Hints:
The complex is a heterodimer of chains A (995) and B (130). Chain A is mainly alpha-helical. Chain A is built from 50 helices and two strands. In chain A, strands 1-2 form a two-stranded antiparallel sheet. Chain A starts with a helix and ends with a helix. Chain B is α+β, with helices and mostly antiparallel strands and 130 residues long. Chain B is built from five helices and five strands. In chain B, strands 2-1-5-4-3 form a five-stranded antiparallel beta sheet, sandwiched between helices. Chain B starts with a strand and ends with a helix. Chain A: It holds the Pfam family Adaptin_N. Chain A: Residues 44-621 form the Clathrin/coatomer adaptor adaptin-like N-terminal domain.
Amino acid sequence: MEQLRTIGRELAMGSQGGWGQSKEFLDLVKSIGEARSKAEEDRIIARELEHLKRRLADPDVPRRKMKELLLRLVYAEMLGHDASFGHIHAVKMTHDESLPLKRTGYLAVALFIDERHDLVILVVNTIQKDLRSDNYLVVCAALTAACRLIGEEAMPAVLPQVVELLAHPKEAVRKKAVMALHRFYQRSPSSVSHLVSNFRKRLCDNDPGVMGATLCPLYDLILEDPSSYKDLVVSFVNILKQVAERRLPTSYDYHQMPAPFIQIKLLKILAVLGSGDKQASGHMYTVLGDIFRKGDTTSNIGNAILYECICCISSIFPNPKMLEAAAETTSKFLKSDSHNLKYMGIDALGRLIKINPDIAEEHQLAVIDCLEDPDDTLKRKTFELLYKMTKSTNVEVIVDRMIEYMINITDHHYKTEIASRCVELAEQFAPSNQWFIQTMNKVFEHAGDLVNIKVAHNLMRLIAEGFGEDDEGADSQLRSSAVDSYLRIVGEPKLPSSFLQIICWVLGEYGTADGRYSASYIIGKLCDVAEAHLTDDTVKVCSHILAPISFVTYFGLFLSCVLYTEAYAISAILKIIAFEIARGRKIDMLPECQTLVDELSASHSTDLQQRAYELQALLGLDKHAVESVMPSDASCEDIEVDRNLSFLNGFVQQALESGASPYIPESERSGVISVGSYRSQEQHETSAHALRFEAYELPKASLPVATAQASMSMPTTDLVPVSEPGYYKEDHQTSRSQPSGDSLSGEFGVKLRLDGVQKKWGRPTYSSSTPSSSTSSQQATNGGSHSDGGGSTSSHTRESSYGSKRQQGTEVSAEKQKLAASLFGSSAAKADRKAQASRKTAKESPLSEKATVTNATPPPIKEQLTPAAPPPDLLDLGEPVSSSAPSADPFSQLEGLLGPASATPVVSETPATVSSQTPDLMSIFSDDVQTGPSSGSTEPTLGDSSLKNSQKGATAVASKKGPSLQDALQKDATARQVGVTPTGNNPNLFKDLLG
Amino acid sequence: MIQAVMVISTQAKPRLLKFYNFQPPEKHQDLVRSVFQLLSARPDSVSNFVEVDAIFGQGTKMVYKHLATLYFVFVFDSSENELAMLDLIQDETHFINSNSSLFTVFVETLDRCFKNVCELDVVFNFNKVP
């Protein structure tokens, strides 16, 4: 073997020697290949560069040798070393007479420098000369170089010649000229905009190669402005037809496909042109159908063309027949074992469902498979697909999945993207506010620093404003459950700062609102947060840099954007203390809180300092003052700014009475150098360019009083510092000013500016159709046994059972089986819908059986519990009632049941199911709960929780869809504590996704 | 359009780099490193496509093929078809194989032949991309 290797090596060298390289070069390449470390490689290249520098400077080097030296230079630069000393030699070589040397020169120049480099000027002249050459190979080389080296400035120098070359007798030159012109267009569309008609002309070129090259620039142009190229649709279709019918020379065939790259380009162009244009699309159907028929699914390139066809069909005006063909091909892709084809299939599916969402139904399992696949690319593509098909019915599962995936990825770029998608979906489709808050909590916890700050504001506003309904009770319940969950979370290390800020704000605003937590407990927690962050050096440094500049310059902006966590924490403490005082309770300063305040009052950040001092000042105020400074739960109230400062009228009046001179507006003042005009006067004087020798004027006596007055009543005066009206004064005369003045600064510091925040949050309640349908179907499946509670209860139980099911893993398999039995039985009639499902069955049965096995609940138990149920074999669960096909594939039945759309053709024996046209997945779960208690001791928790929930449901808001708020958030927190990530790893997943 | 063609060894050494949008030489090594990190993290028998928005900008994709000790990488934007690009890579490797048809047995030799191929390859690619 070793011997063979040596022989091979020698042969390799021999053949390479034949290309004109010397032994030196080969040795260099070899030694680099064998280098054991980066350092060794660097040493070798450094030595080589030394050598090259010497040799290149040598005037006696033969030209052929020069070429090799240049290639070695390229090689060294590819390995990441600076070879700029040799660039000029590359430029020189472009002047050479010999074609190979010239080409090498152009190649090296194109690799070394770009169009902005100084040396390009030296090359432009050569290119110009070469474009005029008689040798078409030289012209080609020059055109190739022009693509790389001619920038916007140099373009006019070569443009006329390039356009001339479009009519060159040699097709290779014409092709290169088209490419060069395309490149110029990409660089600077405006410089060549008058020449784009040339591309149209070249489309009719006799040579297919030139025509093919023209498609690239035309595609770009058509993307820009499809409407002005509509006249070409027929030509494009004709060309495509000719290509597909193999009218091109066989030399354009590739893997027995006629000119596939040209076909792909044409299909892309047609997709753009036919988009939303019925007439243009009409021309295309025939040829697209032909291509589909001839489609070759065995080779990559054949599949590439088919994929382009699907893209084209999904883009142009829809045609049912075409869509059918596209869907068929897509399913072939999805069923393929090749990951590449699956990827294309998922992408194609994503395009097709835009036109017909039902197509996805058929491929539920394939989609789930892709989601579980270890291939990251495929997973991402699948998430993209799910993102496109999210509806209010499946948003919970999809967003759950996304978050689960998001937690595990490290790629920041993608994490940001998927986090923003989660937020977007949650905002758009959230079924309930509780769910929204929970979801946002998760997103913030795991990707808090990557999410747009606006989202955080949105969440805080939601908690503050409630749901815009009049139900105060629900709002406060929501808030206290939010407080609960945050108190649990807040101790966790390494929470993103934006999430901590939300937590601080909510705790400050509502921590003590319901009286379940003592103020000192919450203050203690908040102190911990602040302390933890104070020890964090980066935060400190950041605050050092940011605070002095930002605070002074961008007070408002700063407050709303770059507040750091300590500020939130201290403000929260401030609020809690204020609320306590307002309630008339005595507040004891915790020692750690005192330390924190002391530390912050000496902070480098003036903002933190101010907040600390405010806190201290607040402690000295009496109850009434505090109440008006920090009104409880007033974060949603508008802050009214009295621009006229009318509250100062009394003060002004008093001052006037005691002999102050009245305020004169600046414009009316005369003879007084007002502060505003001072500067202009100064400028005026300096412009006179003369020294003044006369004595100064005597100062006017009344001036200071006037300006003082001005500053009080005219805050808009530019250079006069506006004093905070009476904020730090204990003066009772100005106590009237305190509320608004203080609420101005206090509220402003604490409250976020909510105006201008995106108001995307819609859908306060769940769409009404689903609950009702779930109720009806549930009643139907249960034989009307469940009659209490109506819509709200059913949805409550549903949610809770769903949640507990996830938490407790797979403890519900007995129910699941029963459920499956009833489901399969009732829809047996449509078993024949998918005959191809044999493969799926193989996949499905382990999937559903997995639940049984992991649960260690043997089928006999289930049998024992529900004696009336059919035998435990999953594949044989058909109810005796169903007349047709007792051996029907259960999966396809399940599949049919789950999608509401596919459920329509069901001819069922059970009248109950017919009555509910959409057997919602929700009903499945409520059915679960129904059977929960009956299944006895196997799962007391589930029974308990469902009982508790239904009790609560009676008392709680009937209009809300979710279970009680506390339960929802509690569930979240419990799951977090136990460390259980809720997984949807069960057959229900695809129902949720695709139902 | 195709934005870059790269051949990187499994030891993260560049064997061939060609950028069709000029990249300053000092950036080359960074790009090679980030591409290699991406590739080496991918198990075998997964798809050959990777979305590389984070490295090469919005909407860019990468098709790669792992042959012996080399990664062949094409980076391109939305105006190209992924499967077609994959075939281009295959084509390229065929092309190189046919030039050294004697040595296809030897993975290492192929690797070695490759190092010299920069000129050859560029000639090969220039007619594909404007």
